[in-house]
Every structure is written in C-alpha cells, then in structure tokens.
Amino acid sequence: MRPPQTVAVLGAGSWGTTFAKIAADSGDSRGVQVRVWARRPEAAEEINATRRNSRYLGDIQLPANLQATDDVAEALNGAQLVVLAVPAQTLRAQLREFKSLVPKDAIILSLMKGLEVGTDARMSQVIAEELEWPQDRIAVLSGPNLAMEIAREEPTASVVACSSIETAGWIASACTTPYFRPYTNTDVIGTEIGGIVKNVIALAVGICEGKQMGDNTKASVMTRGLAETTRLAVALGGKSETLFGLSGMGDLIATCSSSLSRNHTAGRLLAQGLTLDEVTGKMQQTAEGIKSAQAVLDRAIQLGVYMPITENVVAVLQGVISVDELGPRLLARELKAEGVHAP
Ligand SMILES: NC(=O)C1=CN([C@@H]2O[C@H](COP(=O)(O)OP(=O)(O)OC[C@H]3O[C@@H](n4cnc5c(N)ncnc54)[C@H](OP(=O)(O)O)[C@@H]3O)[C@@H](O)[C@H]2O)C=CC1
Ligand SMILES: O=C(CO)COP(=O)(O)O
C-alpha cells in the first residue's frame, strides 16, 4: 500500500504540531500535504504566515508542505491518515462533532496518552466507539517522545501499534525521517497503558525532585512504577514485553528525567507548595496524568491490580495526603518479593 498523500492532524499543540512536521518532512519528496487543525484561528494564521507555532514550539520552523486551518472540514477533506492530538478528556466530544467529516476509508492514529475519566477507556477505544471504526484501522503511537526535542530534530524512536501489522507499517512509513524512527507492534493495549501510566509515575518522580530527593529515590519510584504499570497492562490483555520497550520503559525514563515533561513539572510544582489549581493555571499545557490518575486507579481496583504509587499520587491530587506523606506511605508498606507479578 502506498504511504498516504494527505495527512490531517487534529490538534495544534506541542505534539500535534511536531508530529505534523514529522509527517511533512517524511513525505516531502513524495509530495505529501499535511493539514493541521487548530481550534484558534490565530494559531492557524500564525503557522501559515510565519511557519511557526510560537506558543508551543517557540522558534521552530515548520515545513512548507504543512498547512494549518481552523476549519476542521478543510483539514479532514480527503485525508487518508487522520491523526488525533487533543487532550484526552476532550476527545469523545470532539469526535461526536467531527464524525461525519472523517473520510470513510481513513486510517486513524492516536497520539494521546490519557485514560478517559468516567469510562476508564483508552483513546483507541473511544475512537472505535465514537467513529464505529474497525480495530485494524485504528493505531496508536507512543514512546519517549518529548515534543520539543523532536521538533529540534534530535534523534528519537517510537512505536506504532495496531492489531494489523500492515496498518502499523503503513503509518511507520509515513512518519520516518532522519530524526524519527518508528518501530511497529500489535500490542495496542500495552503500548497505550505504558504511555498513560508513565504520566502518573512522572508526577510522583516530579514530587520527589521538588522535595530535593536524590537519584536513588527517583530510580526506585520509576522501577516500581514500571512494575505496577506492567501489572495493569497484563491484566488488561497487554504483553509485559511491550512495557520493557520504547512505549514502556523508554517513555518512563524520558518523562521522569526531563524538565520538558509537563507531568514531571506538575509534580515539582506540587512539591513546591502550589495547589493543583495553581499548577494547572501556571502550566497552560496538557499534563494528562493529573486527570488520568483517578481513571487508572479505578481500572486497577476493578481488576484487583495493586498500584501503590498510583494510589498515593491520587491521594495527593485529591488533597487526602500532603506531598510530604507520599514517600513515608510508600515505604511503610509491608515487605514483599520484588517480582512484577508478586502480590
Ligand atoms: N507534548 C508532548 O511532548 C507529547 C504529548 N503527547 C500527548 O499528546 C496529546 C496532546 O498533547 P499536546 O499536544 O502535548 O498538548 P498541548 O497542551 O501542547 O496542546 C493541546 C492542543 O489541544 C487543544 N485543546 C486544548 N483544550 C481543548 C479542548 N477543550 N477542545 C479542543 N482542543 C483543545 C489546544 O488548543 P489551544 O492552543 O487553542 O488551547 C492545543 O491545540 C496528549 O494526550 C499528550 O499526552 C504524547 C507524546 C508527547
Ligand atoms: O509523553 C511525553 C513524552 O513521551 C510528554 O510528556 P508530558 O506530557 O509529561 O510532557
């Protein structure tokens, strides 16, 4: 199957715009056109007039075969690949609005790393439900993908997951550049869960950092965070090996180590004494872990999966415990064997 000639990206934030650049750079020699939908007309105008999206990507220059529009019908018209990059909690409402405009033969790619509050649904499930799309035409992309680093063309790998390996390969061929290398797999559940839960773990690591704790502490939280992420993914039907790859361990390392991460930043700010409202007000960008944490915990409780770090991050976010109580509560638990699946 020839790679797509027309790509629509819905969402002109940091990752949507950066992925649009990847697709445009990847397809430039094949005459590919990428259209990005921005909900604010001034954001679309700025991209078209200056080749920049300054609010999210500073001075990064966007390629000429990337155009922006505030008209979602124009963005979706004739698109063979439709990429979704809006905040997870807004996806369902937006799909309801745009459904009739999505070309019936399009392949859908989710870039989002959140779990829907209320339904605990993954983004690929929300897409399947709302668009009534077959699984083999819905894919997800996830990995250690801090948008700003990729926008600066710093080499990065990622994973495209789809039940159809052919679909995953088709998407990978549409987003391969000298600075971006997508791998493929068929474990959509494991790939999505890795991206969702690492945001919650990054909140915990950010809190440790904000409290001036050292690298041993952060490595301990990351490693045990990966263990609880893996337990949840496997209980949902994902594969543990996926969690030890780019979309699990890779993304966990990137997000928990980087000051570019919004989730990590949110944790640091909480540790510095800001309230949750102050943190979200200050950041003005999507930190999915803040809302997804409760949905992750709800899912874990339904499935009988033990997720102590997530449980305590939720308690901090809800104001049930203070940031200072997070560490002592985790350390005071009963001793146990180390394995990922140990009870
Ligand atoms: N940034 C990154 O490094 C990465 C992000 N992701 C994931 O990608 C997804 C999108 O994140 P990202 O691009 O970073 O987010 P940003 O916060 O950078 O941008 C969000 C985008 O969605 C728009 N938006 C915000 N609120 C709404 C709403 N209520 N309805 C419709 N559109 C809205 C914003 O428009 P406006 O500008 O008008 O507010 C903006 O275009 C998230 O799930 C995130 O976890 C995944 C990998 C890397
Ligand atoms: O998903 C990301 C990196 O892979 C981005 O993380 P943040 O949303 O925390 O910035």
TrEMBL record:
- Single GO term (MF): NAD binding
Gene for this protein?
gpsA
Question: Which GO cellular component does the record give, naming just one?
Answer: cytosol
The segment(s) forming the Glycerol-3-phosphate dehydrogenase NAD-dependent C-terminal domain are: 187-325
**InterPro entries registered for this protein in UniProt:** 6-PGluconate_DH-like_C_sf, 6PGD_dom2, G3P_DH_NAD-dep, G3P_DH_NAD-dep_C, G3P_DH_NAD-dep_N, NAD(P)-bd_dom_sf
Per UniProt, the keywords (alphabetical) are: Cytoplasm, Lipid biosynthesis, Lipid metabolism, NAD, NADP, Nucleotide-binding, Oxidoreductase, Phospholipid biosynthesis, Phospholipid metabolism
Q: What does this protein do?
A: Catalyzes the reduction of the glycolytic intermediate dihydroxyacetone phosphate (DHAP) to sn-glycerol 3-phosphate (G3P), the key precursor for phospholipid synthesis.
Q: Where in the cell is it found?
A: Cytoplasm
Q: What is this protein called?
A: Glycerol-3-phosphate dehydrogenase [NAD(P)+]
Location of the active site: K198
Q: Where, in this chain's numbering, is sn-glycerol 3-phosphate bound?
A: K113, G143, K198, D251, S261, R262, N263
- State the organism of origin: Arthrobacter caoxuetaonis
- One Pfam entry for this protein is NAD_Gly3P_dh_N
Q: Where is the Glycerol-3-phosphate dehydrogenase NAD-dependent N-terminal domain?
A: 7-167
| Database matches in SUPFAM superfamilies | 6-phosphogluconate dehydrogenase C-terminal domain-like, NAD(P)-binding Rossmann-fold domains
Q: Which reaction does it catalyse?
A: sn-glycerol 3-phosphate + NAD(+) = dihydroxyacetone phosphate + NADH + H(+); sn-glycerol 3-phosphate + NADP(+) = dihydroxyacetone phosphate + NADPH + H(+)
